[in-house]
């Protein structure tokens, strides 16, 4: 096993990404500070890049002393997580140690294969993490050379419907019992007991993103726990009369 992966065994990997172009935190320096805070809290590694791509990976790689799993989300449909070998090279140039790559069997925007993208990571001396949605994806990704498999895309691909909004622990359990490479649990681990359950299910490490690094999401959790505001308090500006102004 790659020595870098040894550092992740049993650990919490924190995903530091924004998900919307208009997120107020969409800024490489803000992301680097968020990553620093996660490391101070005990993160074994940082997963980062997302729609910020190489700029965020560069800022975070310079700011933290734990392994950096870099990715670049380019596009919104189909294969968009580090979708081609060109994206792999740019994330590698930005300083990532591990490259997260869409590891599904769907067609890629440049018509090339997952094996090509993994070979690009290996050419740079880096670890290739395949983000999969199903057992079939995972087996194909290992055959294509993936060093580690993550359950990131379970619930986000047409052949992996999301059942209840929670994490896919069944897939973690299945892959951990079958694959010859480490399996990382990722996707909708929103509570500490979810993360513990992932390790108990055989995950090598667990990634938590939204529940730690999205203040907007966290705010919504608290707001939604409060009783609904009375209708009178919900009058919108558009509903006000001139006399109100
Ligand atoms: C499906 C997809 O594009 N997942 C992305 C992959 O990097 C991120 O948007 C997620 O935040 C990340 O996987 C962590 O998951 P969660 O935020 O649920 O803890």
Task: Write up this protein.
With 245 residues, the protein is α/β, with parallel strands linked by helices. It has one domain: Aldolase class I (TIM Barrel), CATH 3.20.20.70. Helices cover 37% and strands 13% of the residues. It contains ten helices and eight strands. The chain has an eight-stranded parallel β-barrel with strand order 1-2-3-4-5-6-7-8, surrounded by seven helices. Helix 2 crosses helix 3 and helix 3 runs parallel beside helix 4. The longest helix is centred in the N-terminal third of the chain and has 13 residues. The relative contact order is 0.12. The C terminus is likely disordered. The site of N-acetylmannosamine-6-phosphate (LRY) has 16 residues, from strand 8 and helix 9.
Outline of this structure?
Keywords: Carbohydrate metabolism, Isomerase. The protein is α/β, with parallel strands linked by helices and about 240 residues long. The protein is built from ten helices and eight strands.
């Amino acid at each position: 096993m790659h020595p870098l992966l040894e550092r992740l065994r049993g650990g919490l990997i924190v995903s530091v990404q924004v998900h919307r172009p208009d997120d107020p935190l969409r800024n490489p320096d803000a992301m680097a500070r968020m990553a620093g805070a996660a490391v101070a809290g005990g993160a074994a590694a940082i997963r980062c890049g997302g729609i910020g791509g190489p700029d965020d990976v560069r800022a975070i790689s310079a700011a933290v002393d734990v392994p950096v799993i870099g990715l670049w989300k380019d596009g919104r449909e189909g294969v968009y997580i580090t979708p081609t070998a060109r994206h792999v090279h740019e994330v590698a140039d930005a300083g990532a140690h591990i490259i997260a790559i869409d590891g599904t069997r769907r067609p890629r925007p440049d018509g090339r294969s997952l094996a090509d993208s993994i070979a690009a990571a290996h050419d740079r001396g880096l670890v290739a993490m395949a983000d999969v949605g199903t057992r079939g994806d995972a087996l194909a990704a290992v055959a294509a050379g993936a060093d580690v498999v993550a359950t990131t895309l379970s619930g986000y691909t047409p052949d992996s419907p999301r059942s209840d909004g929670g994490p896919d622990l069944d897939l973690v359990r299945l892959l951990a019992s079958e694959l010859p490479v480490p399996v990382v649990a990722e996707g909708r681990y929103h509570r500490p007991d979810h993360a513990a359950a992932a390790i108990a299910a055989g995950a090598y490490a667990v990634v938590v993103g939204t529940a730690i690094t999205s203040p907007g999401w966290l705010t919504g959790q608290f707001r939604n726990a409060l009783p609904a505001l009375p209708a009178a308090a919900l009058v919108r500006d558009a509903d006000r009369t001139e006399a109100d102004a």
